[in-house]
Inverse folding.
């Protein structure tokens, strides 16, 4: 999501969100919702019993994706998101649950509406690209 052509003085989405602590809080809230809300059951079923590793990986990934530190790339190399998610059956339902869960987390964390809209639009494209089955 970070604009590589952004010059000095441009505020990244990472900074607009509030930096690393805010990204971590968003990710933690996202996974807490996934654990608690019955509407995200199919999505939760795709994850391991313990979400600690998932929380860390999404946090590291989002930091870089939003224009902050590239923690994920430093640890694992190129994200290769689609390839890494191919073992999991991801269709429209899983995509939509992921987006609904993230949208709820963004809203409940009080992300500024303009930034929330920008993030939802960008994340929708990523979530849609992750689908690997027709339904």
């Amino acid at each position: 999501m970070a604009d590589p052509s952004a010059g000095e003085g441009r505020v990244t989405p990472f900074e607009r969100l509030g930096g690393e602590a805010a990204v971590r809080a968003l990710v933690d809230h996202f996974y807490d919702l996934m654990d608690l809300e019955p509407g995200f059951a199919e999505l939760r079923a795709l994850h391991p019993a313990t979400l600690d590793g998932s929380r860390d990986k999404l946090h590291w990934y989002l930091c870089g994706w939003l224009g902050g530190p590239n923690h994920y790339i430093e640890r694992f190399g190129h994200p290769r998101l689609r390839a890494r998610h191919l073992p999991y059956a991801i269709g429209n339902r899983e995509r939509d649950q992921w987006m609904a869960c993230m949208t709820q987390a963004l809203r409940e964390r009080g992300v500024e509406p303009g930034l929330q809209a920008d993030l939802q639009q960008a994340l929708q494209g990523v979530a849609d690209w992750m689908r690997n089955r027709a339904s």
Observations:
- The longest helix spans residues 20-36.
- The chain has a mean pLDDT of 93.
